Amino acid sequence: MQTTMADEVTKKSREDRTALIRALLEKLEALNLGSFRLECDGMTRCISALLADAGIEHMVHLGQLSAEGKKTVVHYWIEVESGELVDLCARAWMGDSPEIPHGVFRHPSGVTYATSERLFPHQFAASDFLFQVLTGHTFDEFKGPAPAHQAWA
User: Which of 49, 79, 129, 150 could form a disulfide with 125, with the two C-beta atoms 3.0–4.6 Å apart?
Assistant: First the structure.
């Protein structure tokens, strides 16, 4: 099957978005994310605010997280339009093992994310004030690099 120019542009756009998301998460991690002691709802609110500010379209999910041999928990996570998930709290509930996803990833095998409700970022993202209450830092301290583009390919 031949790859078209449009396919290459779409692939590059997806890679750029993933790199931007990873850069934002690395910035959070560098500021000692564990010290925030945020549950999945608070962490998801903060990440959603950062993604929205960077122009990255996404959807917040509320549902159940389960893994083989582990308990099922109510959980929040983010899905970006390219299909990747963003979750920095799964290991807090499921244990710190390599098979439990962390960061930005594709749907993993052996772990089930079952959505009960989808929320738009404007319904859920942390306001500047709530962001500061949750993290102890101003929103401006976390802002990532300017996005290369605003629209999804």
Answer: 49
Contact indicator for 98, 92 with CB cutoff of 8 Å = no
For the chain, counts of helices (H) and of strands (E):
6, 5
Give dist(CA 38, CA 102) in Å, integer: 15
Contact of 78 with 66, CB cutoff 8 Å: no
Residue 123 to residue 118: CA distance in whole angstroms:
10
How far apart are alpha carbons 31 and 135 in whole angstroms?
A: 10
DSSP string, 30-95: HT-GGGG---HHHHHHHHHHHHHHTT--EEEEEEEEEETTS--EEEEEEEETTS-EEESSHHHHH-
Q: What is the pLDDT of residue 147?
A: 41
Question: Pick the residue with more confidence: 4 or 91?
Answer: 91
- So what's the pLDDT on residue 114? 96
Instruction: Look at residue 57 in the predicted model and tell me its pLDDT.
Output: 87
Distance in angstroms (rounded) separating the CA atoms of residues 45 and 52: 11
> Going by DSSP bridges, is the β-strand pair 58-67/111-119 parallel, antiparallel, or unpaired?
antiparallel
Q: Are 33 and 84 in contact (CB under 8 A)?
A: no
Cross-strand partners of 105 = 85
